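Quick one: sequence plus pyridoxal-5'-phosphate SMILES, need structure tokens.
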Amino acid sequence: MEAEVGDEQMGEDPSVNALCERVADMLGKESAVFLPSGCMANELAIKVLCRPGDDVVCERSSHIVHYEAGAPAALSGVTLMTIDGDRGRYSVEQARAVMRKASFASPGTRMICCEQTTNIGGGALWELDDLRALTELAHAHAAFAHLDGARLMNAVVAQDVAPSEFAYGFDSAWIDFSKGLGAPVGSVLAGSRDFIDEAWFYKKQWGGAMRQAGILAAACSFALDHHVDRLADDHANARRLAEGLAELPGLLIDPSLVDTNLVFFELAEGDANAFAAALQSHGVRVSVVGPRRLRAVTHLDISVDDIDAAVAAFEQVIFSTSDSE
Ligand SMILES: *Cc1c(COP(=O)(O)O)cnc(C)c1O
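Reply:
Sure thing.
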């Protein structure tokens, strides 16, 4: 609330400018732009780097495939060329197999996308070498590489790799502040100066240019100062939750696959919506991602005690359901 503010779209908001410079520097890029959401970051990158009809290569469970309201098709006219990968990741060989050169009959690959960490893939981590190899493959095909870093800082903490190392070789990269970093609003997209200049055109066109956005940016800067190292606590809590759930009957989960702060599990039987509703009545909120598949997330409002309370709530739901049957 006390942040210094100005007109963001005139480049006059000092709190926004400071955040953008800091994130550009963190990601090893020339320039950056503050955005209201991560979806806008993904979609601006696709809009600026691709032309209608181009192929964008990504993993089948990607956020751009499932949760951006069809924007790649609606706003940029691209074709998503999806790969069935491993927990949201894919290999150079898999990418090479679907990449193609444009001909009179087929579109060409213009972009490859990677999520670090993967979302629906389960918070899985890409190895730095694999990301590097994919950016090299993209460039060898005269295509661009885009890094969806909604949870990049989780990977930074989990793997002890600098954000600029992960973003190296990517033509566009962004981080989200309203996920585990715990700020109320915002993401920052970074890239070359020309890329960001062009992104500004569409940010304005799409209604994302702001005014006194410094109050939001200041919260993001606060998150970078105070909420990065503690992501390790979220990872430990997620593992603790997964281990607790693995002890319960009727839940399918492998705690060894919980690398960061996302915990996916399946019901051996029953309906995920009913299960989620029952959990909610015990004060635990989870999301439904399939007929029997659910997702729990740990974050800065969740303590170790909350995890133990959550496991107890799961236990109550499971045993009260089996009693009534
Ligand atoms: C949340 C998320 C986004 C979108 O971010 P919003 O800030 O919610 O628009 C994009 N990609 C991934 C992998 C995400 O998890």
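The chain has a mean pLDDT of 97. The chain has 13 helices and eleven strands.
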